Write the structure tokens for this entry.
Amino acid sequence: MPSSISSSEPMKLSGKIWLTAIASSLLVLIGMEIFFRAMGYPTVITDDAALWSLERDKLGKSPKEFVLIGASRIQLGFDMQLFREKYPDYNIINLAIDGSNPKLTLEALAKDEDFCGIVLCSINEAAILNADPGRSQAYHNNYYRNNYNLNTRINREISTFLQKNLVLANPLFNPVNFAESWISLGEMPSENYLKTFEDRSRRADYTLVDIKKHRRQRIDIELKYLKFIESKLSIEKFHKGTSVLRKYSEMIRNRGGVVLFIRYPTSDALFERENELFPRNEFWDYFGDNVGAPCIYFADYPELSKFKLPETSHLDQRDVSEFTESIISILEKEKIFDRKGTK
């Protein structure tokens, strides 16, 4: 009997140590959370293929659907909350992917027999040319087809909940990232100028960056990419790209849906180089005449072309709502929300 009593003492002591350690860890984490919030750090939602798939899985489940596809310009440049307020009966879904070509996502929507909604596709001449396999949206579409399931959905929903509510879930405070910033810069990590929301829409606050440096870097990136595109450029490939997009648009329209293509704004040195490489009368005008779907070219609308782009390629968050208002107004004038397909 005594031996039984004596053997239980270490167990009780061990349990107390574990409880103390857990309680201490929680107090440290709570303290860190309070500290970083007081420092002004925001909560951050990270965008990945699982979050994209979570949104993709919502398609085909509502009688009225409005889908955004494209790359960073529409992901940063469309106010989804404003659209919801104006059209609460529509399910709006953002499937845009930063730095990519929307062709494969449009193809997937065209082949999805359950989808017959409205697609607003942000595209430019280089994407129509489709000369860069590296910018394909294949990874996200393949992830949705092959890896997305109940388990990945629940895990992503838990991650989103934590990221939405805890500053410590911000990747800036990953121990490795935090240590690298402190060692290399001798300071706390700086807030990212990009903010992603639960619905995958994003905002860019260019007051958080050295805008001259950032603008110079953006122009260099874009001009280098256009130099690569120039080496692949042919009018025949552009015509073929137009035909492919026409085919997908027709498939959606034949089920009762609508596809619209929009050329988002660019400016200054970037827009000048794009015009040199893709003369409008040879490229965009051909696309608009032959793709078989409504097209919006920003320069044709003063209400879309009046905005100053801080780094020549994207809208600042302060202009997104007004820009979105203008897009919706154009769609309303074109009676897009009243159109029916041929199904």
Notes: The two ends are 84 Å apart (CA to CA). The CA atoms of residues 193 and 207 lie 8 Å apart.
